[in-house]
UniProtKB/TrEMBL annotation:
Keyword Transmembrane helix on entry: no
PROSITE patterns: GNAT
Magnesium is among the record's keywords: no
Species this protein is from: Pseudovibrio denitrificans
UniProt keyword terms in alphabetical order: Ribonucleoprotein, Ribosomal protein
Name by which UniProt lists this protein: Ribosomal protein S18 acetylase RimI
Gene3D superfamilies in the record: 3.40.630.30
GO MF: acyltransferase activity, transferring groups other than amino-acyl groups
One GO cellular component term noted in the UniProt record for this chain: ribosome
Span of domain N-acetyltransferase: 1-145
Amino acid sequence: MDIRRYEQTDFAACREIFLSNVPRFFMPEELDEFAQDLNRLTDPYFVAVKAGQVVGSGGYFRGAKGVGLSWGMVRRDLHGQGIGKALVQYRLELITEDCPDLAVHIDTSQHTRPFYEKMGFIVERVEENGYGPGLHKVLMKRSPALP
């Protein structure tokens, strides 16, 4: 598997990856926001490519509270194969190089909370139904000192 910078030609594949994760991981109404973000990218965003196909994506951005991970996802039928972990580790390595003293934040759901806890993130707050009915927003943070 390779990880490389997102290109506009990856748009359709990333959209399909998003849709494969609806409704368990994303609400359908988030698709427009995701598409708009891809069309006006100014922050680093990457795709994971396996056997010539885009199978995952994710980025990061600098914000008021530090650095945030954005729109991380893996094609639903490929969950559990280490693609998501590789994408997160890749982004965390780049963040450590670019912003070694900043904490890393993520807004995720209750479904991916355990995954991010294994990656060293701790829960700061949970907003019940924060993304929509039955999909809670979990705000998490990772210390900048973690390897």
